[in-house]
Design goal:
Structural class: mainly beta
Strand order of the largest sheet: 1-2-3-4-5-6-7-8-9-10-11-12-13-14-15-16
Helix content: 10-25%
Order of helices and strands: HEEEEEHHEEEEEEEEEEE
Largest sheet: 16 strands, antiparallel, barrel
Radius of gyration: 23 Å
Number of helices: 3
Number of strands: 16
Oligomer: single chain
Length: 323
């Protein structure tokens, strides 16, 4: 009799667990993530023939699921270029594989997560498919890494964040000793105005000099226009003492009917000219057009002015299609 009661109890528990799992499964809301970025480019170097053609710049594929009270998961793959293979080839990376919990003022993320290094700047710039934000473009930091992050917003004006990750980025998930520690503060004193400061320290696996970054952003945005300026600093790059870089990026846009006219200026410099061959400035002007809900197009003109050498102009038409 006791054995029958035991079997009955186990059966009831199993049925209850299955019913609960089915309820949770039905409560999950899934959202597909699919973004493609391509361009038609033409570059006119001072010497040699003009370069032109179509190019697949980036493709993101993934899914996001939300359930319960603030829980969510995200899995995203990134198909892009790599210096390790021929320029005509593309490599698929795992960009995000994370779980997140939000509850009012507090948010916690863990796994292969987006970093806090330049996320605010990238959102303010708003045209990743035309050009990466300054720190991403000139390799001051990585957009994703393996670790954990916390964000706390005690008031509508103030937000604090902290992150601990491997420090190698999502393309090279190292398992050696050494982590990146970062903290940031964002202030929104009035509607549309954003002030942010962020700094991090990236330990060296070999115990050498830690690499450090520091950046600050001031930006304002409303329905008619946006304008922002950021200052970026990189100290002891790759663990080499006094191998420093700095930069300035200013960008903005103005609404014109159904289009946005945008412009941007970058300035990149290195201490004692150690990176002189790649130092210089960049000017960009273009028009951003929403062809429909899922498709954007941005004809633009870019001018790269190296510290050494003559300027190189280029004319581009960038496309983005996203769900």
């Amino acid at each position: 009799m006791k054995r029958k009661q035991l079997f009955l109890t186990i059966a009831l528990l199993a049925m209850g667990t299955a019913a609960q799992a089915q309820s949770v499964k039905q409560a999950v809301e899934f959202k597909p993530i699919a973004t493609g970025m391509m361009s038609l480019y033409s570059e006119f170097p001072d010497e040699g023939k003009a370069l032109y053609g179509f190019q697949l710049d980036r493709a993101y594929l993934g899914v996001e699921g939300k359930w319960g009270k603030g829980w969510s998961v995200k899995f995203v793959t990134d198909c892009g270029k790599s210096s390790a293979v021929d320029d005509y080839q593309r490599i698929v990376y795992i960009k995000n594989a994370l779980v997140q919990w939000k509850n009012g003022q507090l948010s916690v993320r863990a796994g292969l997560i987006g970093t806090n290094v330049f996320g605010t700047q990238e959102k303010f710039w708003g045209r990743r498919y035309v050009m990466k934000s300054f720190q991403d473009e000139y390799k001051f930091g990585s957009s994703a890494d393996l670790g954990a992050a916390l964000e706390w917003t005690p008031t509508k004006v103030l937000s604090l964040d902290a992150i601990v990750v491997n420090g190698e980025g999502y393309k090279k998930l190292q398992a050696e000793r050494g982590l990146l520690y970062g903290v940031g503060v964002t202030v929104k004193p009035v509607t549309g105005l954003v002030l942010r400061a962020y700094g991090d320290l990236n330990q060296r696996p070999d115990g050498g000099t830690p690499q450090k970054t520091l950046n600050a952003l001031a930006g304002y945005k409303n329905d008619a226009f946006s304008i922002a300026v950021e200052a970026d600093f990189l100290f002891d790059k790759d663990g080499t003492k006094a191998k420093n870089q700095s930069g300035l990026s200013a960008y903005g846009s103005a609404r014109a009917g159904k289009c946005d006219i945008f412009a941007r200026y970058d300035l990149l410099a290195s201490k004692n000219d150690w990176n002189r061959s790649k130092d210089g400035s960049m000017a960009l002007v273009g028009v951003d057009v929403n062809l429909c809900k899922f498709v954007k197009i941005a004809p633009n003109v870019k001018l790269w002015i190296p510290k050494d050498g003559k300027a190189t102009p280029s004319v581009n038409v960038n496309f983005q299609f996203a769900l």
